[in-house]
């Protein structure tokens, strides 16, 4: 059974990563920060968790305002280090624990926590700044990391109470995962700071001390503050500490604080704390109920013949293929594809199997492999075929036979804008 063995809280200021990379850990300006982090690093090395679930916020690096969401769980296989303007730090990529990440997503949705998911996005200093000082990483990270990105930059954002509720749901999710895993939840961000406007440079060590005490002993009191109240006490950007509440709620009420340190070298109150918990497993019957609850919504779908739910496992497997076919919405990509299909597939890094499925317009094979229908209709449009061609092929029927089953057999259409783009009845086979 998976179980949470403790939590770590640490600021994610880029200062930390910068100092590490520039060999300044012993520099008087930075040494107090590294001294504050050392006990957390030692605890993590001693505990050797299988998985770290790391909560952080992106800083307008990989998550932009064209589509902003409050809670985004990393569900892809690996995550690279983001280039934030001056080149990416020389750190190894993170490797996710797909089984746990996908179970967490399913469990949260079952608990009506409708989060978003992401793959193929590099992660910025919000994640890598704390991680790089919390564990040695010579060539690879010593554990799997499930990243949970929290959009706290564009208001409205969830209430402190909602960050807390997410932590409770996370605990239920991890507790019900059926594999022996030791999990540490890492919260990042804060403490007091403000980095914009005339109030830039605001700090409040008194509030930071209060926050740390309440966080350990009466964390629910922190869920009653508004974002404005957090900003008043800890600076506008310091209000990101609401992210910590998710970690705290994932731990039981009673925690053993093994370490707490605080420094204020420049712009941000930097805290580092370690909380250990007694690993108590829920009853087997309780876990079974939780697993049944997670499966409830899709339970039975396997009995529907010819149905392939596009779930996270399918999405991860088919990601490269779906990304390539989705790319056909760009006229330039369409032209390159039509000029030399095999070359375009190769350049997109498709495997031979994936390329053959595309080149042969093997619609049924594409679906079975992991493509979603809505990129197939794009490929059909590019190929001068209608949606009806695709439906007929997936059913293994000639177009005329399938059309004869429709109430309006003459209704042949596609997502292509150009008229007569799908005026052929032949499905290419090569
Ligand atoms: Fe931040």
Strands, total number: 10
Bound molecules: fe (ii) ion
Indicate the mean pLDDT. Answer: 94
Helicity level: 40-55%
Largest sheet: 8 strands, mixed
Number of helices: 19
> Whole-number radius of gyration?
25 Å
Order of helices and strands: EHHEEEEHEHEHEHHHHEEHHHHHHHHHH
Termini separation (Å)? Answer: 49 Å
Low-confidence segments, given as residue ranges, are 420-430
Approximately how much beta-strand content do the residues carry? 5-15%
Structural class: alpha/beta
Spatial strand order of the main sheet:
6-3-7-2-8-1-10-9
Description:
The two termini are 49 Å apart. The protein has an eight-stranded mixed beta sheet, with helices on both faces. A two-stranded antiparallel sheet has the order 4-5. It is elongated. It has 19 helices and ten strands. The model is unreliable at 420-430 (pLDDT under 50). With 430 residues, it is of the alpha/beta class. The longest helix is centred in the first third of the chain and has 17 residues, at 31-47. Bound molecules: fe (ii) ion. Residues 12, 57, 59, 126, 189, 240 line the site of fe (ii) ion. Fe (ii) ion (FE2) is lined by residues 12, 57, 59, 126, 189, 240.
């Amino acid at each position: 059974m998976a179980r949470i063995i403790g939590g770590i809280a640490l600021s994610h200021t880029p200062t930390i990563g910068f100092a590490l990379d520039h060999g300044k850990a012993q520099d008087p300006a930075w040494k107090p920060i590294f001294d504050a982090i050392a006990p957390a690093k030692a605890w993590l090395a001693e505990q050797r968790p299988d998985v770290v679930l790391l909560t952080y916020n992106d800083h307008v690096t990989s998550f932009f305002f064209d589509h902003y969401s409050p809670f985004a769980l990393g569900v892809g296989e690996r995550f690279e280090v983001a280039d934030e303007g001056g080149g990416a730090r020389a750190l190894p990529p993170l490797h996710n624990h797909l089984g746990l990440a996908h179970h967490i997503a399913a469990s949260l949705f079952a608990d009506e926590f409708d989060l978003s998911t992401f793959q193929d996005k590099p992660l910025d200093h919000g994640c890598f700044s704390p991680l790089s000082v919390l564990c040695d990483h010579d060539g690879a990270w010593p554990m799997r990391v499930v990243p949970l990105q929290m959009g706290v930059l564009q208001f409205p954002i969830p209430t402190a109470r909602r960050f807390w509720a997410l932590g409770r749901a996370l605990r239920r999710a991890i507790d019900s995962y059926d594999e022996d895993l030791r999990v540490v939840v890492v919260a990042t961000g804060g403490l007091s700071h403000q980095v914009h406007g005339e109030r830039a440079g605001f700090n409040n060590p008194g509030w930071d001390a209060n926050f740390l005490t309440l966080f350990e002993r009466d964390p629910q009191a922190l869920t009653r503050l508004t974002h404005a109240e957090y900003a008043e006490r800890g600076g506008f950007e310091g209000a990101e500490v609401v992210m910590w509440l998710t970690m705290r709620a994932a731990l039981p009420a009673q925690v053993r604080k093994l370490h707490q340190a605080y420094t204020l070298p420049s712009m941000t109150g930097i805290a580092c704390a370690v909380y250990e918990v007694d690993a108590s497993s829920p009853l087997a019957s309780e876990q079974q109920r939780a697993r049944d609850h997670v499966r409830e919504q899709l339970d039975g779908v396997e009995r529907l013949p010819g149905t392939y739910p596009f779930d996270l496992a399918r999405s991860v497997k088919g990601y490269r293929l779906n990304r390539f076919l989705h790319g056909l919405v760009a006229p330039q990509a369409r032209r390159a594809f039509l000029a030399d299909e095999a070359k375009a597939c190769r350049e997109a890094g498709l495997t031979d199997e994936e390329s053959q499925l595309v080149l042969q317009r093997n619609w049924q094979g594409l679906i079975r492999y992991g493509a979603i229908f809505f990129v197939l209709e794009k490929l059909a449009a590019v190929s001068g075929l209608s949606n009806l061609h695709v439906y007929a092929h997936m059913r293994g029927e000639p177009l005329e036979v399938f059309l004869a089953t429709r109430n309006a057999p003459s209704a042949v259409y596609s997502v292509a804008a150009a008229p007569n783009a799908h005026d052929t009845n032949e499905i290419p086979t090569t």
